[in-house]
Amino acid sequence: MKKKLASLEVQSPVQKLKSVLVTGGAGYIGSHVVRELVRSGYRVVVLDNLSKGHRAAVDGVEVIVGDLSDRKLLSNLFQKREITAVLHFAARSLVGESMREPAAYYRNNVLAGLSLLDTMVAAGVPYLVFSSTAAVYGEPKKIPIPEGHTGLPTNPYGASKHALEEAIRWYGEAYGLNYAVLRYFNAAGADLEGDIGEDHNPETHIIPMVLKVALGLYSRISVFGNDYPTPDGTCIRDYVHVSDLAAAHVLALKTLACGAQSSMYNLGSERGHSVLEVIRMAEIVSGKRIQVEYAARRPGDPAILVASSEKARQELGWRPRFTGLADIIKTAWRWHSSHPEGYGKE
Known about the structure:
The protein is 38% helix and 17% strand. The protein is an alpha/beta fold and 346 residues long. The strands form 4 sheets. The protein has a 7-stranded parallel sheet, sandwiched between helices. Helix 6 links the parallel strand 5 and strand 6.
């Protein structure tokens, strides 16, 4: 890996980037990005071990079932599919689980990530868009959070993402890897066509859990902590529509391919909503009463996470379409009410 990666001379990113690899592309966010890439004219290959992803979420797209730790599979894939860019989503992403099983998060999010980076360098693939997280910031000292905010993650999930961010930065310095690190906040909602959406097992995200209560699939929603230093005592988060996230990934890829410098960007709505505000809005959207029970705080949960996304707006030209919580929840409700069992048995 002594030789630096050569930059592709790209006039039209869609025409010159032969194939784009999306790792973890059958997952919730990855599948929406795959759809946006296909709509934009890219040829897409998905690599997913299907431990969390769903084939039905990427219907019509080539899916290779495998793991990032399989270097032989990766090398063959890069060569045979003529991969010229990677969008990397494959990761464990549950805060609570990471507190109980930190080793699994470092193995999957860091070691497997390094396997991907090494294969990219060996194959001469110069472009990477990395799916990162606001969890790298820990307890923020400034709201909204700018990209330059010094991070001290409060959980192994955020720490493992931050560790791979640092590796990517140094791979850029040493090997010429061109990258965009996208730190997004709380992804929510579903594609407007209503055929793909959020389906986790177990489900831990607030909006789908609340809507499952509205559908009668759960009896109540547990709110973890009502004693945070916030107006109503519950955590405040910045919710961003998954399709807006997808658009940002495509913009980041195009920007890199057109010669932009490597950088990192926050992706959020720049508005914070508490857990109770989300629940009340879900009641309005669904027309259903949602039963709430309070539980102890979860270890590793910061009180407030709200993004400053000005850099993405200025440098990527990112303009979120879904700017209100109601709009986001409406698309999620459309998906969950028409797919109460998610993608079902596959």
